[in-house]
């Protein structure tokens, strides 16, 4: 069983309206990166959901409406989405077999796509579409759960007495040294418009000759330097936490696509700084004494902007034990997590914290997966 999503700026049915471009570098605000959620496998698309006998709509007792098709699909993956959300999600069974390629196939592959990430670029070019995505995928295979992440979504394991992160977010701040080192080795990527050095604040002309804190690619901490004229250029990475931006544009540092993305009013590409390789975490499910309420929560960054791992775990532990007879409890839990970020459930988030981001959530029960794998 696999589940996952991709966030991107177009849907299979055709391009969305043009994304809001970043503002000039004097006041950079990144465009939004809508997400496209889908599983790696045979999960259905939204359009064909009504025709599938194994997909039944799940009613929300609170609002009396049908949840998305993926809310009860296969009774394994349970998802919920915020309103007007461009994300989509899917899950399905995978059949994996070994396939040996011959010399001709290998040569054809190397000739058409010397680098694996070029496959996406060529497909986008052929279809006349533009965009990029982040990705978070979970695959259950032979008693192990593989979680791959390239972006700023997150997956956690929630058990009765444990909360375990299964992924790490990749942002300009968390990958600062890798990005700065790339700019150090290939300074032409900045086209003389940016400085690779990071400063706690945006420098001004009055700072020339003054001592300020800075960080470079070889530094974990901060040091002092005298401000030079070149330091007044806009930083390669600027901002802290969720406000950190790459070239004043992107809030993520790993993903797929974005081959045509450039800084506004320049020919500076962002693609060289975006790493497509995901981080993979392996959870040995067979080694866990799984309980009925043990779940994996996968969610896009809008949820984690408002709720911590521990807060999500508390909500899971408070909801599931009291709803064991409800066959749709995992779907309803995903819905409740969405509501908790939008001010619809009092007391669940810190005062004044509300998320206006697109949010999508999977709640994956592991108990049945452990039982299934132990029999093989």
Automatic annotation (TrEMBL):
Annotated stretches, region: Disordered: 1-63
InterPro entries: PP2C, PPM-type-like_dom_sf, PPM-type_phosphatase-like_dom
Amino acid composition bias (Basic residues), ranges on this chain: 1-10
Record lineage: Eukaryota, Metazoa, Chordata, Craniata, Vertebrata
Domain of life: Eukaryota
SUPFAM superfamilies linked to this entry: PP2C-like
GO cellular component: mitochondrion
Protein name (record): Protein phosphatase 1m-like
Biased composition (Pro residues): 14-27
Domain PPM-type phosphatase: 70-366
MF terms (GO), sorted A to Z: [pyruvate dehydrogenase (acetyl-transferring)]-phosphatase activity
Residue stretches in coiled coil: none
A Pfam family that the UniProt record links to this protein: PP2C
């Amino acid at each position: 069983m696999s589940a996952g999503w991709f966030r991107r700026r177009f849907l299979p049915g055709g391009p969305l309206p043009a994304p809001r471009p970043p503002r000039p570098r004097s006041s950079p605000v990144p465009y939004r990166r809508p997400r496209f959620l889908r599983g790696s496998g045979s999960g259905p698309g939204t359009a064909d959901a009504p025709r599938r006998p194994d997909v039944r709509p799940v009613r929300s007792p609170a609002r009396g409406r049908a949840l998305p098709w993926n809310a009860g699909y296969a009774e394994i993956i349970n998802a919920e989405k915020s309103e007007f959300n461009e994300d989509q999600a899917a899950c399905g069974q995978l059949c994996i077999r070994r396939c040996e390629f011959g010399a001709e196939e290998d040569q054809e592959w190397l000739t058409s796509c010397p680098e694996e990430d070029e496959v996406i670029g060529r497909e986008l070019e052929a279809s006349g579409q533009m965009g990029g995505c982040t990705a978070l995928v979970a695959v259950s295979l032979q008693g192990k759960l593989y979680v791959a992440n390239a972006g700023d979504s997150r997956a956690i394991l929630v058990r009765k007495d444990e909360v375990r992160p299964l992924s790490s977010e990749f942002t300009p701040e968390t990958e600062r040294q890798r990005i700065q080192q790339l700019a150090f080795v290939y300074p032409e990527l900045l086209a003389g418009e940016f400085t690779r050095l990071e400063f706690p604040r945006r420098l001004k002309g009055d700072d020339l000759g003054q001592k300020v804190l800075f960080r470079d690619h070889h530094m974990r901490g901060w040091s002092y330097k005298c401000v030079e004229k070149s330091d007044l250029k806009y930083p390669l990475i600027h901002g802290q936490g969720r406000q950190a931006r790459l070239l004043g544009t992107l809030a993520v540092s790993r993903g797929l696509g974005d081959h045509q993305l450039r800084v506004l009013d320049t020919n500076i590409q962002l693609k060289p700084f975006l790493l497509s390789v995901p981080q993979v975490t392996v959870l040995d499910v067979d080694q866990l004494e799984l309980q009925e309420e043990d779940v994996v929560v996968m969610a896009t960054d809008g949820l984690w902007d408002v709720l911590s791992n521990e807060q999500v775990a508390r909500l899971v532990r408070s909801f599931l034990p009291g709803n064991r007879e409800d066959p749709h409890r995992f779907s309803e839990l995903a819905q409740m997590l969405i509501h908790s970020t939008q001010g619809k459930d009092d007391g669940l988030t810190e005062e004044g914290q509300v998320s206006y981001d697109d949010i999508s959530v999977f709640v994956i029960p592991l108990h049945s997966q452990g039982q299934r794998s132990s029999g093989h």
